[in-house]
From TrEMBL:
PANTHER family: AMINO ACID ABC TRANSPORTER ATP-BINDING PROTEIN, CONSERVED COMPONENT OF ABC TRANSPORTER FOR NATURAL AMINO ACIDS-RELATED. Pfam families: ABC_tran, BCA_ABC_TP_C. Involved in beta-(1-->2)glucan export. Transmembrane domains (TMD) form a pore in the inner membrane and the ATP-binding domain (NBD) is responsible for energy generation. The keyword ATP-binding applies. This is ABC transporter ATP-binding protein. InterPro entries: AAA+_ATPase, ABC_AA/LPS_Transport, ABC_transporter-like_ATP-bd, BCA_ABC_TP_C, P-loop_NTPase. Gene3D superfamilies: P-loop containing nucleotide triphosphate hydrolases. Residues 5-247 form the ABC transporter domain. GO terms for molecular function: ATP binding.
Length: 255
């Protein structure tokens, strides 16, 4: 197995808070990893460091074997990384189709305008339609993104992530705000993304779905890894249970 993502002693502090306190982990090609932990554990901070939206105080981030620690977010996207939310938040005043075309262009250049000019409209439109079909959004192409209900908007975020043809996608709470049926549907779409050979790192509080789909869990608490491995074994780990109980989130963990 080749490593898609490697973290070597990654740490960052905000004032008195050690948000991430020295994380060393590898994610292999084809993996489906759940990055979990109670509120404030450091999950989003770590994801933002991986994406280049935050610079760590120390440590190294490697993508596909290359050190990208000093690289911009767009350089990391070109190196095969996609992130829902921070990078691919849909433009609400643009059509669904243009949102995906624009995201594809960002895979080539950093600026949105240059991205739109860069793409060959017809070829990219065809590809965008195919991606929209793969996330169950066929028929919505001409609608404004801002008109979509949340469940579809979240699938559009996923489509935009796929448009950069990533090797690895970081999904930061893709199920937040969705009802049970919408969450199941979104999970099916994420599983389809994984079946296409894309490595998935999922940050999610919905532990029922996390346990159902992830092959491996990494549990953070207070910025450090306190458990890792098979989801059921990890959740049976007393240190993990203690972290969730201490945070008042055991109801989630038992779901
Ligand atoms: N920009 C910031 N400035 C100061 N403190 C921050 C900042 N971002 C995060 N923190 C702190 O760092 C710690 C980790 O936060 P982070 O958002 O990464 O946790 P999380 O695991 O994603 O939590 P949640 O599940 O609630 O989203 C928290 O104590 C948080 O208050």
């Amino acid at each position: 197995m080749s490593a898609v993502l490697e973290l070597d002693d990654v740490a960052i502090r905000f004032g008195g808070v050690q948000a991430v306190g020295g994380v060393t982990r590898t994610v292999d090609a084809g993996d489906f990893v759940g990055l979990i932990g109670p509120n404030g554990a450091g999950k989003t901070t770590l994801i933002r460091i991986i994406a280049g939206l935050l610079r760590p105080d120390r440590g190294k981030v490697m993508l596909g074997g290359s050190d990208v620690t000093g690289e911009s977010t767009s350089a990391r996207v070109r190196a095969g990384l996609a992130l829902t939310h921070q990078i691919v938040r849909p433009f609400r005043e643009m059509t669904v189709l243009d949102n995906v075309i624009l995201a594809a262009g960002i895979g080539y250049t950093s600026g949105p305008l240059r991205a739109l000019l860069h793409v060959s409209r017809r070829r990219e439109a065809e590809r965008a339609m195919e991606i929209l079909g793969s996330v169950g959004l066929t028929g919505t192409e001409r609608r404004l993104a801002g008109e979509l209900p949340l469940g579809q908007l979240k699938r559009l975020e996923l489509a935009r992530a796929l448009a950069v043809d990533p090797k690895i996608v970081l999904l930061d709470e893709p199920l937040a705000g969705l009802n049970h049926a919408e969450a199941s549907r979104q999970v099916e779409t994420i599983m389809e993304v994984h079946r296409r050979g894309i490595t998935v790192v999922l940050v999610e509080h919905n532990l029922e779905e996390v346990m159902r789909v992830c092959r491996r869990l990494i549990v953070l608490n207070n910025g450090v890894v306190i458990g890792e491995g098979d989801p059921w074994e990890v959740m049976a780990n007393p240190a993990v249970q203690e972290a969730y109980v201490g945070s008042g989130m055991m109801a989630h963990a038992e779901a």
